[in-house]
Structure formats: C-alpha cells, structure tokens
Amino acid sequence: MVTKNVLMTILKNILDAIDEGIHVIDKNGFTILYNHAMAELEGMKVDEVLGHKFLSVFPDLDYQTSTLLQVLQTEKPILDQSQTYLNKQKKKIMTINSTIPLYVNNQKIGAVEIAKNITRIKDLSDEIMRLQQTISKPVYRSDGKIPRYTFEDLKGQSPGFQKAIKMAKRAAKTSSSVLVYGETGTGKELFVQGIHYNSSRGKNPFIAQNCAAFPESLLESILFGTTKGSFTGAVDRPGIFEQANGGTILLDEINSMGLQLQAKLLRVLQEGYVRRVGGLKDIPIDVRIIATTNEDPQSLLEYGKIRKDLYYRINVVNVTIPPLRERKDDIPLLTDYFITKFNDRLDLTVAGVTDQCLRAFTLYPWPGNVRELENAIEGAMNLSLGEKWLDEDCFPDYVFREAEKKFAETQNNLHISLDEFLDLNEVMEKVETTYIKKAMLSSSGNISQAAQRLGIKRQTLQHKLKKYRLEH
Ligand SMILES: Nc1ncnc2c1ncn2[C@@H]1O[C@H](COP(=O)(O)OP(=O)(O)OP(=O)(O)O)[C@@H](O)[C@H]1O
Ligand SMILES: [Mg+2]
C-alpha cells in the first residue's frame, strides 16, 4: 500500500514531466499544484506561485478575467478556450485552456486549469498562411504573368467535348456558379480559366484555391480571412473572398472540403457577405464561384461527401468533361497539336507519330487523360534523335502493353456457337459490336473513316456506338 506522501511525489513527478501546464487552486483561492510547464508559460517561478493566494500573485486579474477564479465561483467548466496574453516576461503566449471545478464527496474543493501551449503551432500556421498567400497560391491576373488560358487553347472535336465547350461558353456569359467535373488531367483548370477570361469579370482577379491542400481550419482562414487576436490569425488579413472581389474564385477539388466548412461557404454564397474568422463585421462580396471535382457528383451526393444544398447552389451550370478514353476521336488531333507545340518549344521538326503508334494511342486508356498524353509526347520529343516520325521506341512500354491487351480483347470476342440457340438479335449485336470495334480500331478512332469502312452513315455509326455503349 503506497502512502499519501508517495502518491503525492508520483503526482508531482508526472506533472513536471508533461507538456501541459497545470494550475490547481483550492476553494479559498490558494495555489496547491503548479507545474513547471505552467510556470514556463506564465513566465513565473514555481515557488512564486505555489502555496500563495492567486490574487496576490496575479493582482491584475479578478473574478471576471481569470478563468480559474470564474470556474471556482460558477462551478461551470470552461473547455477548449483559446487565450492570448503577454506573460510576466512580456512574451506573447497562445494557449488552449480547459478549466474545471474539482469536487470530493460532492463538495467543491477547488479548480484546475490545464493549458496547452499552441504558440509555436500558431506561428507555424501563420507562416503557412503567409506563404500560401504570397507564393504557393497562384493569383491569376490579367497582367499575363501566370499562364492564362482561353477557349482557343482547348482542343477537341468529339461531341462530348464540344458539349462541354458549349456549356462553358454559355456560362461565360453569366455570373452563375459552375461545377466542372472531369477526371484528373481532362483540362478542368483550362475550362475554368476560359470561363473567367471570357466573362465580364475577365479583367478582375482570378484566384485558384485547392481545397485538398489544407486542413479545414486553415482553409477557412484562407477563404474568409482572419481578425487580430482570433485563434487562427494573429493579424488582420483578408481572405481570398475579399481579394477576389469583382472576380472569380476557383475552388479546386471541392469534394475534399469538410462538411462544416461547406456549410459556412454556403452561408457566404447565399448572403453575399463574408465574416473574417474571429471578426464581427459583415463584409459585402461579389465573387463568382467555379468549383471542380474529379469524382462523379452523383456519387459525392450519394456518399454524403458534398452537402446537397451546397451542391445545388454551385451546380447551377454543369460542365462535364469526358475522359480521353471516351473521346478517342480527339487523340489524333491532340497528338498533332502537342507535336506542333513542342516542335516550337524544342526547335524540332517532328512530323507526327507512326500509324502503329497512333493505333496504340487509341487503345490505351490514358488514366491521366490529356495531361498524360501531353507528357508522353513531350518526353518522346525530348528523347528524339532527329527522327521525323515518332515510333514505339519513343514512348513508354506500358502504353503498348495495355494497347495490345485491349486489341486482343477486340479480336477474340466473336464466339457464336451454332449449337446453342441464341436470340437472333443477340447474334446480330455480337457481330455488329465486333465489326464496329474493328473498324474504329483500324481508323484510329475516327468515326467518319470507320463509318466509311463499314459502309454506313456517320450518324448511324454514332447511334450504334451509343446504343452498344462502345468507347470511342
Ligand atoms: N482539351 C485540351 N486541349 C489542350 N490541352 C489540354 C486539354 N486538356 C488538357 N490539356 C493539357 O493538360 C494539362 C492538364 O490540364 P488541367 O490542369 O486543366 O487538368 P485538370 O483537369 O485540372 O487536372 P487535375 O484534376 O489533376 O487538377 C493542361 O496543362 C493542358 O496542357
Ligand atoms: Mg486542376
């Protein structure tokens, strides 16, 4: 059995080993426990406080301003409260405090304050915000310092892509919110810039903010700004809503934003006012929101990753960019476009890719979409040794391995056994899909050419591609 004295020694040892500051006063306001961490925070010596009456050690405080005395009086705990103060050594300290009343046999015997020092964390988060606002967050302005894209930079003729362009051009004529959905590398950012620079806001700021890059509380400060003394910001700093006033904010990867912040964002959009974190003033704002997601909006709703109300507020105009594997028509065109681009940039005279390469390109699924195609071509041209036509050797092996796999699939799927009775429609369907796939393949995804090979009209082929859900 350990004695009380031993227990007390153990307690003192523990208190001095932990990072949290601990201060316990008895019901008469005398300090009965005070650890080193608390002494360091407050710029005191343990002996100056331990055993002394609280108010005689801290004469500037009273029952209103001291949380310990307040809790002793009211018996109501104060949890997770942030405090900023200058300590005895005139050092600025920020803490998160919890203060709770203490009881023995239902009798109040005192109160304890537990303080976590967050000064360093706070400094770091301030520094991140400062860097974010000066360097990492691209601020696109009409001064041309950062690449600006317009609709002319967006290449593609396939119907799905053209529909997306049509929607984006319509959106540019309005100030409505827009949700752009597309897999990674499909050109979402280009679309968003296209909308901004073609809109009446085009001469005003365009600010892009990635919602996945920061924890929620920091993102909130970045969006809405901070007020002096508030937990997340030591200085008055406008958020990007204020900075982009009159212009457009791109909220990239909105699907990564936490649900609580989504609710706050919705309020700002509905009310047209922003309130800085820790502030009291409502600041009127006029910004257009364009959000992007690389996950299907329907599944975001289904899995509760986006609030329904926010979704309907933002999805006023919907631009859906099909992945490259679903618009293979565009592959030859984009290939030529990027070859021209890198011929200029690298001072080369490459004429194109070989037919065999192009065929593989139309079979490969391009998980990184247009960005992946562009990078593959840039890589190949960097490695080129003056050849006119880029062939298989210039591109990564996996492109051709994947393409071969796909090719094998299209070759072997016509198995019609005359022994089993199949519905004639099913037989026709099998034959049609197999021949259509072959024709599309040998014409590198060009619908007009494939239709010619099959001896049918382009529209008929388009109809069948849709009917059989064949990727093209
Ligand atoms: N239709 C297109 N025409 C020309 N270039 C394109 C097109 N689509 C994409 N690109 C090229 O691909 C690159 C990637 O596009 P972007 O950054 O807009 O993709 P994203 O959809 O925003 O991708 P992520 O989800 O990864 O952010 C662009 O820098 C551009 O060079
Ligand atoms: Mg992007």
Task: Explain what you see.
- It is a single chain.
- The chain has helices at residues 4-17, 36-42, 46-49, 54-57, 67-74, 119-136, 159-172, 188-197, 216-224, 240-243, 259-271, 297-302, 308-314, 330-346, 355-363, 369-383, 397-411, 424-442, 447-454, 458-467, and strands at residues 21-26, 31-34, 78-86, 92-104, 107-117, 139-140, 178-181, 206-210, 225-226, 237-238, 248-252, 273-274, 283-284, 288-293, 317-320, 352-353, 389-390.
- It is α/β, with parallel strands linked by helices.
- It has three domains: 4-117, PAS domain (Beta-Lactamase), CATH 3.30.450; 122-322, Rossmann fold (3-Layer(aba) Sandwich), CATH 3.40.50; 328-467, Helicase, Ruva Protein, domain 3, CATH 1.10.8.60.
- The strands form five sheets. It has a six-stranded mixed β-sheet.
- A hairpin with a 5-residue loop joins strand 3 and strand 4 (92-104).
- Helix 14 packs across helix 16 and helix 19 crosses helix 20 (458-467).
- 32% of the residues are buried.
- Mean pLDDT is 88; it is low at 139-144.
- The site of adenosine-5'-triphosphate has 16 residues, from helix 8 and helix 16.
